[in-house]
TrEMBL record:
One of its GO terms (cellular component) is plasma membrane. Keywords: ANK repeat, Repeat. SUPFAM superfamilies: Ankyrin repeat (SSF48403). This is Uncharacterized protein. It holds the Pfam family Ank. ANK repeats lie at residues 9-41, 115-148. It comes from Aegilops tauschii subsp. strangulata.
């Protein structure tokens, strides 16, 4: 059918409806064609509609997809990333907050992608301090997990510091005497 037909990038009409935030169209597609497995068709990057929703911060569409297809949040894209990885990588604080506040998604918090990176690794690597804090406030997030390069999220955070700023913090300041005339 036309709903399962993909364009040259591998995107289906459902991918586009999600991308453009058209909840009404998403509902229409899923209502009439649930048997087609529309939500389980990935695009050319291996991203499923739920991944797209996480990337473009469409939390209402995410909720609708998870409500209708309860296990779809477990799907990983072509790089082994789940929806939390995708939200973190795109700096989507609202989505990260939503996922971290819902215990249903707890299996995503420490999941690793094909590079061995957890969502915390990605937040540290990309320099998203607010997302790092959101993840660290989630009690079950592990800080000691190492990726395929043997690095923890802390290691990546240190590497992400701008060299000039790091130098500023490493070099002790000289004490200067202040002379004042009385």
């Amino acid at each position: 059918t036309l709903l399962t037909r993909a364009d040259s990038s591998g995107s289906t009409p459902l991918h586009f409806a999600v991308l453009y935030g058209r909840l009404d169209v998403v509902v229409l597609f899923l209502d009439g064609h649930a048997s087609l497995g529309l939500a389980s068709i990935s695009d050319g990057n291996g991203s499923f509609p739920l991944h797209i929703a996480a990337m473009v911060e469409q939390t209402r569409i995410m909720e609708e997809l998870v409500h209708r297809i309860p296990d779809c949040y477990e799907m990983v894209d072509g790089k082994g990333r789940n929806i939390l990885h995708c939200a973190v990588e795109h700096g989507r604080e609202t989505v990260v907050r939503h996922i971290c506040r819902n215990d249903k998604f707890s299996m995503l918090w420490n999941a690793t992608d094909s590079g061995g990176n957890t969502p915390l690794h990605l937040a540290a690597h990309h320099g998203y301090p607010k997302i790092v804090i959101l993840l660290l406030k989630t009690t079950s997030v592990e800080t000691s997990i190492t990726n395929n390069d043997g690095l923890t999220a802390m290691d990546l955070a240190i590497r992400a510091i701008v060299p000039g700023r790091m130098y500023y913090f490493q070099v002790p300041r000289r004490r200067q005497r202040v002379y004042a005339a009385c």
